[in-house]
Amino acid sequence: MRRVARWVRPVNAMMAPALERSLRDPDRVFDRMLARAEKAGGATAAIDPAFIDDSRELLHRFAREETVSYMGWIGTRTELQMRLENRLRIRRLIAESPEITSEPIDRPIVVVGLPRTATTLSHKVFAHPEGNRAPLTWEFQHADRADADPAERAKHFKRTQRLSNTVKYMLPVWPVIHPSSADTPEECVLALPHGLHWLTRFRMPGYREWLADRDFVPDYAYLKQFLQVLQHGDRPRRWVLKSPFHLYNLDALLKVFPDAAIVWTHRDPQTVLGSFCSLVETGMAAANTEYDPARIGEDWLDILSWMVEQGRHARTRISPDRLIDVSYHQLTADPYGQLPGIFERLGLTWTEREERNLADVLARPGMRRSHEYSLAYYGLDFDQVDRAFGDYSRMVAAMR
Fold this sequence. Notes:
By secondary structure, this protein is mostly helical. The chain has helices at about 10-15, 15-25, 25-40, 50-65, 70-95, 120-125, 135-140, 150-170, 175, 205-210, 215-230, 250-255, 270-285, 295-315, 330-335, 335-345, 350-365, 380-390, 390-400, and strands spanning about 110-115, 130-135, 240, 260-265, 325. The protein has a domain at about 105-200 and about 215-400: 3-Layer(aba) Sandwich (Rossmann fold), CATH 3.40.50. The chain has a five-stranded parallel β-sheet.
């Protein structure tokens, strides 16, 4: 299956002059985006000037990418504008109803682990029990109170579904690599303004180093407000969050969610690297006119091994009764046997209803993935990965 539809390259070529004009003046582009976000969010930039400045600089980073394509520029601008709209709307809603910040976000379940380690399976299963809840894709596009006008909610749901369909039209392989739709649980990094997830589209020299010095506590405080807005007007829920990229920010996450339960999924890094580099390649192919698979391998070997190192340092400060290690190999080999025990440790009850949901989740497209790619294609070999991850690889092997 093709990564990018055949029509994308000629469109990029045809629109290259328009792209060049746009890249010459990113401030003008950003000002137009901000004006639309202010209208959609119902608030002015004055409500959160630091975030606006940060977002402007982020657009400048995208504009400096020498290989950015027209479709990559449009897609990234669209997502950045969505984040601007949501931020301004959430700030406005809280300003109008300060009681929103009193909404309890108790004992959230946070699924972490390297990408391609059954985090998606875990996310969908943990979010299903009565009283649990995960943020849905459409809510990252348009966060609002639970008691907002149902007609407005339906309108924004349809808008998100159209965008989801557009992604599938542009990237035929996407439903296999990362199946999603407007009503599926999605990774909560979509509510965080900055993070390594942007590097799945562009290399952005210097950005990772900038992230390493960033205080992420305010970003996770905003994530909490995002959840409080979604919950307001409904009964309290036990939120289920998920992202591999929480691994390098566990300390910040736990400062904001001190009673969170961390579920860490583990899989041998050699397999993870090939699969995840394939996903990154799809993102790079969509956003760039050219890319080097070997650079993808080099970059993400360094990034993912660093993420694991940061996570392992942080876990020494987490109470053992709040951290659950899950073997990918055991979970996928025997999900019906493994999940009841994990549910018990999370204080959840495994029922026939949960068993039926598991069957539905396993039957969905993309859950039995078959797109593993060799390390050699990305310029890597077994020994390189083994050295980068050190004894983590042996720890994972011992869990099988």
